[in-house]
Amino acid sequence: MAKGTIRYWAAAKAAAGVAEEPYDARTLADAIAAATRVAGRGGEFGRVVGRSSFLVDGEPVGTRPHEMITLPEGGVVEVLPPFAGG
Predict the structure, then answer these.
(1) What mean pLDDT do residues 47-53 have?
(2) In the CATH scheme, what is the code of domain 2-80?
């Protein structure tokens, strides 16, 4: 397991209720699943994250399966929902 930070932007930040939080996970899929289980987060969080793009330490994840993305110790995951006009 690695520890790092998840940063939420725009609608993801609103749905999460925080700008960032720690992760303690092996893969991106594990980190997102854990974040989804946080108490008080409704279905909107899952919907937003399901449409989001991700960067891990500044590198785009793209279409790679999230189960295949190993998270680094001290890394930063950026959750980027679709942005209007861009």
Answers:
(1) 95
(2) 3.10.20.30
